[in-house]
Amino acid sequence: MSRWYIIILPKKLGWSFLILCCCLILLAWNQAQPLVLFTLGLASSDIIYDIMLDPGHGGIDPGAIGQGDLYEKYYVLDIVLQMEKILTAKGLKVGLTRDHDRDVSHLVDEGTRHRRDLLGRFKLMNQARVGISIHANATKDPKESGAIVFYQEGNYLDRIYAQIVLEELERVQVLNERRVIPRTTLLLLKAKPPVLLVEVGFMSNPADLAKLGDPQFRTSVAQALSAGILNFISWRSGEQSEPNP
Asked: 216-234: string of b/e by CB count within 10 Å (b at 16+)?
């Protein structure tokens, strides 16, 4: 038998408590509203691309800055533009969140520039079957180096995708973490398709910075990441074509 309990508060305290609850609800809604509205709006969005490539930052946002005023945004853009050529040559329809030095905050009307930029990239990721965002890291510790691959925690398909890409990336760059790293707070990873965020090295590490400044290294990274994407697409196609037992 169900029982109901009623808590009776003093009149003044009761109204204060009610007002406080309303304020907290409105605050939580206001913070979540942009992503909620985007998620609802994208629920029926069409798939346009096989793969969406996202070079992080751009425009007013330089990303990580290495010694000598070297900017992350230029290095990751070069890697992504090379990936576009590789993947297009393999027959994939490739989308880019940006193809020159700009951000994508113009795609969203409300919020700070940083928030609009994130939501713009999130919007574009949902137009593809697979996505990847390329970055270069930075930290206060100059000894930190190597590549890291992040995926959405709790998503089996994303974890497989991350592992396949990590195995290819390890061929051309040392790893900061020898395993793929789950995250729950990175917005792009919450998009509908499998999406990874890859840190290809540390701008704050002299050895990694020298690598990123080497065009041949950037080409090697572009080739490795492209191979990982192609291997995942092939694996996924094989999984989906397997007959049910």
From this structure: ebbebbbbbbbbbbbebbe
Is the pTM here over 0.85, yes or no?
no
Calculate the average pLDDT of the chain.
87
pLDDT digits (tens, 9 = 90+) for 147-167: 999 999 999 999 999 999 999
Q: Which residues pair with 133 in a beta bridge?
A: 54, 197
219 residue type, one letter:
T
CATH of domain 47-240: 3.40.630.40
pLDDT of residue 241: 63
- Contact yes or no for 194/161 (Cβ under 8 A): yes
Task: Return the exposure string of 125-158: e unless at least 16 CB atoms fall within 10 Å of the residue's CB, then b.
Answer: bbbbbbbbbbbbbbeeeeebbbbbbbbbeebebb
Q: Tokens standing for 180?
A: 């793929």
- DSSP 8-state class, residue 199: E
Number of Cβ atoms within 10 Å of the Cβ of 24: 10
**Cα 161–Cα 165–Cα 169 angle in degrees, nearest 5:** 170
